[in-house]
Design brief:
By secondary structure, the protein is of the alpha/beta class. The strands form three sheets. Strands 1, 2, 3, 4, 16, 17, 18, 19, 20 and 21 form a ten-stranded mixed sheet that branches. The longest helix is centred in the middle third of the chain and has 18 residues. Helix 6 packs across helix 7. Helix content is 25%, strand content 26%. One of its GO terms (molecular function) is glucosylceramidase activity. This is Glucosylceramidase. Its EC number is 3.2.1.45.
């Protein structure tokens, strides 16, 4: 068997004497940075109805939790620009690899967009910038503007490949004229402009629909407690509560949009933020769920929010990897905390930041843009380099299709894992050996069991019929 020094399936001799038992094969994909094995399919492994092999990890597909909506990235203006700089055939080839569902594709199923500029734009803009002294409270001059030149064309190419991809959109800042500091960076939304800003969201969703792009969900504000970015906004929990309860929710209802409203969109160190808003029943009726990043706090905080409001959903929407990246370390941390950790704590999405970068890590805004953000892939002309986030997400996105359900599995020492039941009935298990040593363990899925040796620092995805 290839790579026998990395993944050995050890089955006792008694198996072969049990002629009345039927063996089953499982598909396995492996990443082991120390052996230069990067998201490669291995020879199928054999699972047996072997009564003599005690399972270390027991997967119970009868105990079911949240539905998975998808795995993916943010498509920033910078990402779109990098892709548009490629030759058309090379871009199509890369987009098929990222968003297709073929043998060599990784099946990204969810994308986050910025509503107007994020900090990975060339310049800061909104869809409704006014000259000093100008007034337009009904937003008659609203226009998607610069997004029509890059983000929207790339989105349309992606939708041709995967018309079912789910899109979430997040604002980094309202138009400066709506804020108390009249600046793109920091400041707060003026209460007298709450109504106009709610209309701003409506017009964004409507104009995107006119382009053939459906926005499934919005978050109210990216990182509302981080006003130091450019663009950014300080929005305290009570401000977000009042905005959603009295303006955004009613406006979405008035226009019958159907787009989900998701709270918070910031670090796991402040679960009290979305909890406090959902404790207000008038606000909560408009709220679909809350979103998290992990630049602060512990991933288990997501479960605190779920336990307090189990009738609302949890999303993980952003985590960056700093250039130049460190695959052995990044793979372990992000797999343990995000693709495994976030989903074990009720997240329906896991999204990394962001889809592409170039060798110079541009564009980014001045006065607070991210100058070290490494994309899932680096694009240099037509040359593509796959970075840590690519492999981290691929181990989930290719196999855990939207509509899959997280199912129960125990977690032995040093082997974080999570399991899913797909709509087609297959069971997908994502496994990490976070130690430096080879770990030997056995997995039981339904009535089948196998023994595995997994190298230190390795990630494996196992798919069983």
């Amino acid at each position: 068997m290839k790579h026998y020094f990395l993944l050995l399936i050890l089955i006792s001799g008694s198996l072969y004497s049990c002629t009345n038992l039927i063996d089953q094969e499982a598909e396995i994909w492996l990443t082991v940075p120390s052996k230069d094995i990067l998201f490669q399919q291995q020879e199928n492994i054999v699972l047996s109805q072997n009564p003599n092999l005690e399972p270390t990890i027991l997967i119970d597909d009868q105990m079911r939790f949240q539905e998975i909506e998808g795995f993916g990235f943010t498509l920033s203006q910078g990402s779109a620009m990098h892709l548009l700089g490629m030759d058309k055939d090379k871009r199509k080839e890369l987009l098929l690899e990222l968003f297709g569902d073929g043998k060599s594709d990784i099946g990204i199923s969810y994308l986050r967009l910025s509503i107007a500029a994020s900090d990975l734009n060339e310049t800061v803009f909104s869809y409704h910038d006014l000259e000093e002294g100008e007034s337009d409270p009904e937003l008659t001059k609203f226009d998607l503007g610069p997004d029509r030149e890059d983000v929207i064309p790339i989105l349309k190419e992606i939708l041709e490949i995967n018309p079912n991809i789910t899109l979430m959109a997040s604002p980094w800042s309202p138009p400066a004229w709506m804020k108390d500091n009249n600046d793109t960076r920091g400041g707060s939304l003026l209460p007298e402009n709450y109504g106009s800003y709610a209309l701003y969201f409506v017009k964004y969703i409507q104009q995107m629909k006119e382009e053939g792009i459906h926005i499934d969900a919005i978050t109210v504000q990216n990182e509302p407690l981080h006003p130091g970015n450019n663009p950014s906004l300080l929005m305290l929990a009570e401000e977000q509560r009042d905005f959603v309860k009295n303006h955004l929710g009613p406006k979405f209802e008035e226009y019958e949009l159907g787009t989900k409203i998701i709270l918070y969109d910031h670090n796991a160190d402040r679960p009290d933020y979305p909890i406090s808003i959902m404790n207000d029943q008038e606000a909560k009726k408009y709220v679909h769920g809350s979103a998290f990043h992990l630049y602060g706090g512990e991933i288990e905080a997501l479960s605190d929010v779920h336990q307090t409001h189990p009738d609302r959903h949890i999303y993980f929407t952003e985590q960056w990897i700093g250039a130049p990246g460190n695959l052995p370390e990044d793979l372990i941390w992000h797999t343990k905390n995000l693709t495994i950790g976030a989903t074990r704590n009720w997240a329906r999405t896991v999204l990394e930041w962001n889809l592409t970068s170039n060798p110079e890590l541009t564009p980014f805004t001045d006065r607070g843009g991210c100058s070290r953000c490494l994309g899932a892939v680096t694009i240099d002309g037509n040359e593509v380099t796959r970075n840590p986030a690519y492999y981290i997400i691929a181990h989930a996105s290719k196999f855990v299709t939207p509509g899959s359900l997280r199912i129960d599995s125990n977690v032995p020492d040093s082997i974080p894992n999570v399991a899913f039941l797909r709509p087609d009935g297959k069971i997908v298990t994502l496994l990490l050996n976070e130690s430096k040593e080879v770990k030997t363990f056995s997995i039981q899925t339904r009535n089948y069991v196998t023994q595995v040796n997994l190298a230190g620092g390795a990630v494996a995805t196992v798919i069983v019929d």
